[in-house]
Design a protein that fits this description.
Length: about 90
């Protein structure tokens, strides 16, 4: 599991994240208040990830979300919970 936690000193100014080829990663949790400046989030080839990262829709500055070479189950879950913005599943 990857967990992004709210913190005064942690990723407050991070604008982009790329996570790729993490073959055993099964979940991503984004807590309220973490990653307040994130604008772009990209996931590539994380085949064990079945659900959209928890808290993704609470990222107020997120403009672009890309998920490439993900599982069919991830794509189905994404489409069921789709939000606004330029979010792409390939």
């Amino acid at each position: 599991m990857v967990k992004f936690c709210s913190s005064q000193t942690g990723f407050q100014n991070l604008k982009q994240i790329l996570l790729g080829s993490l073959f055993i990663l099964e979940s991503i949790v984004i807590e309220d208040g973490s990653l307040p400046s994130l604008e772009k989030f990209k996931l590539v080839g994380i085949t064990e990830l079945k659900e959209v990262p928890s808290g993704l829709y609470k990222l107020s500055k997120l403009e672009v979300f890309h998920a490439i070479n993900m599982s069919d189950e991830f794509q189905e879950n994404f489409n069921l919970n789709r939000g606004q913005g330029q979010w792409i599943i390939e």
